[in-house]
Amino acid sequence: MAGRPVGEAFHAQSGHGARIGEGIYGRSMAESLFSTEARRIGFRRVSREWHAFLMFDSVLQEEEEGSGSSVAKPSRLADVVQQATEEEDRRWKKIRQVDIAAELRRMLGPETQFRGVQEGALQAIMRQESPIVVVMGTGGGKSMLFMLPAACAARIGSGLTIVVVPLVSLRGDIKDR
Fold first, then answer.
1. First CA to last CA across the chain, in angstroms?
2. CA 176/CA 6 separation, integer angstroms
3. Model's pTM, two decimal places?
């Protein structure tokens, strides 16, 4: 096999040529022997970076174990949690200073007013009270209870706010705003 491409050994073993192998296995004739392994390693690296970013315990513990140091040091997870908690506290402090009535009018127009229990519920949300249970009928304005705090956070530019909206019709309403 000296002087012949390594891929030919795979094709010879299976009893067909490179062109047939490419069609059957989807393996490009130009693909190197270890390119699949390289891609797998690349995907694993990206996956681990995301897991670290999302603070999954398994990745953070691996990093601590992999350091090889027997000296007691503060946990990276504890450091990250402390930083996140401090940032969250700063963020909520800024959000609490927002005039929610003015923000509502900015979003929906100058004549807009809160409906039903919206204002009280929003004030409780902005004070981080928990749990908050709000019962409102269809069309009563429940969506505003997550839309307004998210808009306030985005407006003051404090971090990232993710709002997950499961209903297609509700997504359409939010898109129109």
1. 67
2. 58
3. 0.50
